[in-house]
């Protein structure tokens, strides 16, 4: 791929059209090199020309790097990665986490990092959710996006057809510690501001759990709630 095409990958419509996303920086590229993903192309500046990579490497100038970089201070290393290699087909054996219309790239990246840390999870994203191939998501995932199976455009009303036991968080639910003793197939979390439509949760007969707190504030950050939930499930 040429530099002019790589620049377009900053925009979702071109990522979808060309089938690639951008991965930038030494840490993320080291994580990428550990995977079995093929078909990547690496762009480096002269100062990184000796970087040892299994991918096809192209040396470009500092000015060109600034054009394709998504950060204010380019690190001199950018790879393009086929998005199909990061998507999962249905039917895996992992426990599933479903995110309904999640909007914040930092939240999604942090959630992917948590799922990768504990392992054995896949992430299902509803239509209208933030693009997981947004460079901000990829950076905040710290490479976890390479290790967590992701499904896109999973409709909320399809979950009850796919999973027998679904759980969610609710202030009136049972203690979260109880969830670790149960064999739920899918845990549902909602939009940062609106949550999950209650009528949809009722239709799928989702079991509610709660994270007990002192009540000094109204709610937890979405990523924090997911972190606590996944940790509790791992303990159970």
UniProtKB/TrEMBL annotation:
Spans through the membrane: none
Family (UniProt): Belongs to the class IV-like SAM-binding methyltransferase superfamily. RNA methyltransferase TrmH family.
Protein name (database record): RNA methyltransferase
Ranges of residues in domain RNA 2-O ribose methyltransferase substrate binding: 22-87
Xref: PANTHER family: RRNA METHYLTRANSFERASE 3, RRNA METHYLTRANSFERASE 3, MITOCHONDRIAL
Taxonomic placement: Bacteria, Pseudomonadati, Pseudomonadota, Gammaproteobacteria, Oceanospirillales
One GO term (biological process): RNA processing
Keywords: Methyltransferase, Transferase
């Amino acid at each position: 791929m040429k530099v002019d095409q790589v620049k377009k990958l900053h925009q979702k419509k071109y990522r979808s059209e060309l089938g690639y996303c951008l991965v930038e920086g030494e840490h993320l590229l080291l994580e990428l090199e550990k995977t079995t993903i093929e078909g990547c192309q690496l762009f480096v500046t002269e100062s990184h020309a000796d970087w040892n990579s299994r991918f096809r490497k192209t040396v470009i100038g500092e000015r060109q790097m600034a054009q394709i970089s998504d950060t204010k201070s380019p690190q001199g290393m950018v790879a393009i990665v086929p998005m199909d290699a990061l998507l999962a087909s249905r039917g895996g054996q992992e426990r599933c986490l479903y995110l309904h219309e999640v909007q914040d790239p930092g939240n999604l990246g942090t959630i992917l990092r948590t799922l990768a840390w504990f392992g054995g999870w896949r992430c299902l994203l509803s239509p209208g959710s933030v693009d997981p191939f947004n460079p901000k998501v990829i950076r905040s995932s710290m490479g976890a996006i390479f290790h967590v199976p992701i499904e896109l455009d999973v409709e909320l009303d399809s979950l009850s057809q796919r999973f027998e036991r679904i759980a969610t968080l609710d202030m009136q639910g049972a203690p979260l510690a109880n969830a670790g003793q149960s064999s739920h197939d899918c845990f549902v979390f909602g939009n940062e501001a609106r949550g999950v439509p209650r009528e949809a949760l009722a239709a799928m007969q989702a079991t509610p759990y709660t994270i007990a707190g002192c009540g000094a504030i109204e709610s937890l950050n979405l990523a924090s709630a997911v972190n606590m939930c996944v940790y509790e499930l791992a303990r159970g």
